[in-house]
Every structure is written in C-alpha cells, then in structure tokens.
C-alpha cells in the first residue's frame, strides 16, 4: 500500500500559525515587562521600610516592655538549637528555602488550603514585623520578596538578633531574654542545653508547647529539637539524651 502524502499546509493555516506565534511572543514580552515593573515598584515601595527594620524590631520589644538582648548576651546553645529546628540552612540561604516553599506548596495543593508555612527565620521575622498573619498568596509572595531584600540588606547576625528579640515564646514572653527570665528565672546568657532546646521549640506553637501548661508535649518538642541538633552534628547522641533527662528548673 502506498502511504498517503501529508496534506500541504494551506496559506490560511500558515497565516493563522504565524499570527498565533506573534501574539504569544507579544503576550510573553508584555508579561515579562509587567513583571519587571511590578518588582521594581515593590522594591521601591518597601526598601525604605526595610531600612528601618531594626527600629521596628526595637519598637516591638519596647511595646512589649522587653529589654533588648544582644547576641553576645545569649547562651550559644540557644541560637544553635533555634537554627537546627527552625531554619537548618539559615547561614547559607537567601532568606528563603526553595525546598521548604516547594514542600509547602505541595501540601497546600493536596489539602486545598494554606496548611504549611515553609518559612525561614528571615521570613518569620518579616512576617512578624511587616506583614499580617493572613494566609493568602499575595502575602506569601510579599514575604518571599521581602525576605530576599532583607538578606541583601542585613547580615545573618543582624537578622538573628532581631528575631531572637521579637519572637513570641509563650507565657506572655517575647524574645529569649524575657523567656529565660519567665520560665527559668535566669538571664539568656545562662541558658544551658536542655533549657535552650526547650525554648527553641516554642516558636512553632507557643501555647501548645508551653511547659507550664503542657509539660509532656514540651518535653516531646524538646527531644525533637535535640534530635535535630544531633542530625546537624551540633551535639552527640549522648549529649542529647543527657539533656533530655536533665531536670528543668521551671519557675
């Protein structure tokens, strides 16, 4: 059997195809230009506010009657525990976690609602000081862009200092300084490993993991933080077990 010859493309079809390609190219160009204009406008309208982020953080702590705590005034165990559980790639990321965003987006699509945060320490800082807590796509996009800008503007030490002062840690305590005093009656400088791991686990769900209210859940969360520190080679398994079994001198 002789194969049939393909039908020749008519002049009308060629014209239609070329028109479609030109239209698609124009729309793509327009979308790209609009995107650049939108990003430029977002940058221009938010850069000045970001330049005052430290002042916003200090104003927040002052409003809560919290004394500002420098990073050098905090036990080194606390930032280690915090990073292990809240933002493992803190010192190397751009203020956002692509893996965290992808994971959160997948869960959101599966559940049909915003159930996952996928937030880094930088994103949490920006959200607390500059954005609402509404779980919407525009708010999430704004949080991502602001976090990228924050990382470009401030050092990791500056970002971490702002976060450990403004983060809510339950029991009406904002910041690690007030939390150390509220839970243990000590300064943040004197926090040991067990106490640091307990406090570092609170930002996720402060009221749920409050050791004064839900001690068993707080201990479970503490163990999760300690295991994260073992995973990231900050402590040994033996250190983690000793810390978990150590008594907590809660007030």
TrEMBL record:
GO molecular function: peptidoglycan glycosyltransferase activity
Signal peptide: none
Keywords assigned by UniProt, alphabetized: Antibiotic resistance, Signal-anchor, Transferase, Transmembrane
GO biological process, one term: peptidoglycan biosynthetic process
Highest taxon, organism lineage: Bacteria
Residues annotated as domain Glycosyl transferase family: 62-229
Membrane disposition: Single-pass type II membrane protein
Subcellular location: Cell membrane
GO cellular component: outer membrane-bounded periplasmic space; plasma membrane
Primary residence: membrane
PANTHER family for the chain: BINDING PROTEIN TRANSPEPTIDASE, PUTATIVE-RELATED, PEPTIDOGLYCAN GLYCOSYLTRANSFERASE
Name recorded for this polypeptide: Penicillin-binding protein 1A
